[in-house]
Design goal:
Layout (H helix, E strand, L loop, with lengths): L14 E5 L5 H13 L15 E5 L10 H4 L1 E5 L6 E5 H7 L1 H10 L6 H7 L2 E3 L13 E3 L8
Helix pairs in contact: 1-4, 3-4
Amino acid sequence: MKTYIPKPADIKQEWVLIDAEGQRLGRLATKVATLLRGKHRPNFTPFLDTGDFVVIINADKIVTTGKKADQKTYFRHSTYPGGQTVTTFKQAMETKPEWVVRQAIWGMIPHNILGRKLIKKLKVYAGPEHQQHAQKPVPMVLTANSTI
């Protein structure tokens, strides 16, 4: 039996709209990473881009459990002496909530050429408005026990 590899004409990519209001950050990120990779499709191939485009709105209204808002930190270094910057989750959510959601999703997809291609298919917006009206994204409701 031969292995089936989908051809570019067989891959149908759709646009999905997800409202992040009230969603937990990690659970949202895993489901979005699954959509971006295409693991929810029967023709999933690990080395091909078979996933969907994802638009996330209300990124500023995600929630975390426990003390993560105060204890979770993001670390950067400029490679210069004394160039270390540590930002807490709460500070990052006040200034750039889109970046926080994007970072959580980036941590769950491959860090290679395919991953860089997949992350470009993710559009994150802090408020309820988005710019992808022409693509007609299909709203998807994520619940606690939903499978994609």
